[in-house]
Amino acid sequence: MASAIPIMPPPGTTAAAGEETNASSSSTNAWTKSTATAAVKTTASSTPKPVSLTNSNKTRTCRNIVIHGFCKYEGKGCEFNHDVGKPATSVPSPEISKAKLHVNSPIFKPSNLSSGSVKAESVNAPEFVPKHSQDSTSASGGAFQDNRPMVQSFVSPMQSSLMGSMSNLTGSFSQFGMGDMSMGGAMSGNYYGEGSVNNYYYQGSGAMLHQPLQYHLYNTPLPHVSNLLPHQKTIHGFFISDSQREELHKKNEMVLQTVNAQDYGLPEDLHEYHSLYPLDMTQEKSTEVFGYQSSVYKCMCSEDGKTYALRRIEGFRLTNEVAMQTIEGWRRIKHANIVSIREAFTSKAFGDHSLIFVYDYHPCSKTLYDVHFGPQAQLASQVVVGAPKTTDHVIPERTLWSYLIQLTSALKKIHSAGLAARLIDPTKILVTGKNRIRMNCCGIMDMLTFDTAPNIAHLQQDDILNLGQLLMTLACKSLTATHNISKSIDYIAQTYSQDMKNMVLFLMSQPVPMKTVDQIISMLGPRIMQEIDEVQTSNDILESDLSRELENGRLTRLMIKFGFINERPEFDMDPAWSETGDRYIIKLFRDYVFHQVDEAGLPVLDVAHVLTCLNKLDAGVDEKIVLMSRDELSCLIVSYREIKACIDSAFRDLSKSK
């Protein structure tokens, strides 16, 4: 709005002078073209009554300052006050006294401007004040007040239809936590929700939002430097991969998350555990699986300082103490695909009779339900408009075979111990890595149904049947796939191989006489060989990443020794200890590694040079280098072996002082 209002010329600067008008740009152009001749050729009929400028104009604030914030005629003849809040003096301007035309010259009025084109209220229109400025001024008790009536903004039919379509579009994303992003909300000026910025950057005592860590400390190699010679190496070759480092950072961050226990109604201490942190953010406490509401928390153990996961069964009263002994059998099971249980106990710390199970904690893990049936999975599996139907996001067959092999291996361990899993459900199987799954909540059903004395053989057959139902659900990617088995089998036959279909039919068939896990393993023979090969390949990659960090550990120890020795203020009553003898050589070597400069005197930030020198120093090679003092008056020729001996000797001197 303000940019469309021209800056009005002050009186006395041109041949046309007088009161300021809010004329249009075309009128202004007409005024500028006829400035020189209008004052000469004015007639009595077109000349208005002259207006004499008095000292009262000195106290009036210039309209250009109010509208535009500046006046280009300031100091060039403008009579009005340009210092906001400071009354102007009545000292006449020297420019005005030297002007050719007097201040009482007649006011110029363009000939092409009709008398009815500019209204009086337009000339005397109030100053434009933004809404946020008006609010802040009124809140602070300012003198500026806007008494203008509310003006309704014009919305064209096209804009109104666009607003409706945008509101319908954003409404479909409301289930993913996205608020109203319609055009109306944007036009109102409230680009951020009320308190949204403060809630993110200034967390409340009970807010679970947290600042994101800077995971990407190193960028990936650029394309033009990726294809290097065998003897060349980039900086990324000295560290683990970006994805692996980011995943480890996220897990470490999740382990350290805490909340205020009072804000969530959690106890400060529970048995020997403290710092409870809720893990089920959805707060959907379903009774479908256990028959009781359950919740999961992360906690710290006061005895060993480790992090564990607590599964709480709410409102359960344990009537038989012997039921606690069922956990002993599960505690002896140690398997890579089973979440180990530590202990179980009862508690009233939550205000009711609760049964608590303690399991190993796997940070940043998700359930199979969240990975393949959650909101994000459903959004990713939606078919794009106009795309062929073959783009449905089905689970790869290799992934299904990997899931089946891992669950079969876990069942083999459980059944061999004379137990039954009894919980092969998508919501109770954790995904702790890439296609790495673990059976969770083992042993809970044994304690909840202890009084019924179930038959273990029948429960083991139910495990095999539940495994088949889970496989069918994942293959069809539908939680209702088991409601119509024949149709689901047809879909599996069309989408996957014949081996997958035969496996599902075997798991879902009636036991004649009894099905065992060994039969499943025999059918998985060729697939198990492929799984072993992929596991060993993944292990080789992890060992390679570990070897890189092993080298970094050696360099870190060298840097620690440098920090202990260099620039030490005083040792053994000798203030010059770090500047004499072998320590002086170490100081010069520090400058050689870290404080080099180029021919222009600029610092050289070459990480490859630092790593090369430190690796040679740690190995103690016989290669010799030239060390120069800071005043460039002396040079020393020493080898890495001699420098290493100096460091070891100085560090031993510091160690003997203990």
Automatic annotation (TrEMBL):
One of its GO terms (biological process) is mRNA processing. One of its GO terms (molecular function) is zinc ion binding. ATP binds at R311, D360, Y361, H362, P363, C364, S365, K366, T367, T427, K428. Keywords: ATP-binding, Coiled coil, Cytoplasm, Metal-binding, mRNA processing, Nucleotide-binding, Zinc, Zinc-finger. GO terms for cellular component: P-body; PAN complex. A zinc finger (C3H1-type) spans 56-85. Homodimer. Forms a heterotrimer with a catalytic subunit PAN2 to form the poly(A)-nuclease (PAN) deadenylation complex. Interacts (via PAM-2 motif) with poly(A)-binding protein PAB1 (via PABC domain), conferring substrate specificity of the enzyme complex. PANTHER family: DEADENYLATION COMPLEX SUBUNIT PAN3, PAN2-PAN3 DEADENYLATION COMPLEX SUBUNIT PAN3. This is PAN2-PAN3 deadenylation complex subunit PAN3. The gene is PAN3.
